[in-house]
Amino acid sequence: MDSWVQVSQILSSESSGGEQQFLTYSFLENDFESQIPTQTSPISLTLSIADDDTLPGFLALKAASDAREQRVLRATLPGGSTLYYHAYVSLNETPSTTKGQLMAVSATFSLVSRFTRYSA
Questions:
Q1: Confidence band of 3 (pLDDT split at 50, 70, 90)
Q2: Which candidate, 54, 53, 118, 120, places its Cα nearest to that of 91?
Q3: How many angstroms separate the Cα of 117 from the Cα of each of 56, 84, 114?
Q4: Interacting residues of 30 by C-beta distance below 8 A, sequence separation 6+
Q5: Paired sense of beta strands 43-50 and 34-40, if any
Q6: CA end-to-end span of the chain, whole Å?
Q7: What are the tens digits of pLDDT across the range 32-59?
Q8: Residue 2 — pLDDT band, cuts 50, 70, 90?
Q9: 5: Cβ–Cβ under 8 A, 6 or more apart, which residues?
Q10: Alpha carbon separation from 1 to 32, 36, 43, 45, 69 (Å, rounded)
Q11: Could you give all domains of the chain from N- to C-terminal order, each with its CATH number?
Q12: Residues 73-89 pLDDT 10s
């Protein structure tokens, strides 16, 4: 794809993962354990999006999910800063239905590297 496609009608955004993992060790002469930080757990972002399969953003997410290739996600924040994520896209097209709320689908972005932030 040669251009950006806006994903509109986002209802919520959540992130998960990124917890620090540790190597725990103890020397024979010690009666206590120590730990060294190693890596973090995988990070994913999940967007809840109003269910409208005619919107360009929905169609772009579906194409990216079907392709199973890495993509770049760009998020522009209200203050003008921009975040870039390198991720695999997974679209769950089955809408969730909650009484009194819009039907929604979810798009999950499984990060393959840390995000990059550019200040406004």
A1: confident
A2: 53
A3: 25, 7, 10
A4: none
A5: unpaired
A6: 26
A7: 999 999 999 999 999 999 999 999 999 9
A8: low
A9: 56, 57, 59, 60
A10: 55, 42, 24, 21, 12
A11: 10-118 (2.40.30)
A12: 999 999 999 999 999 99
pLDDT of residue 120: 83
Provide the residue count of the chain.
Answer: 120
Cα-flanking dihedrals φ and ψ of residue 56, to 5°? -55, -40
Q: Would you state the structure tokens that stand for residue 93, as one six-digit string?
A: 């097209």
Which amino acid, residue 8?
Answer: S
Residue type for 105, please? V
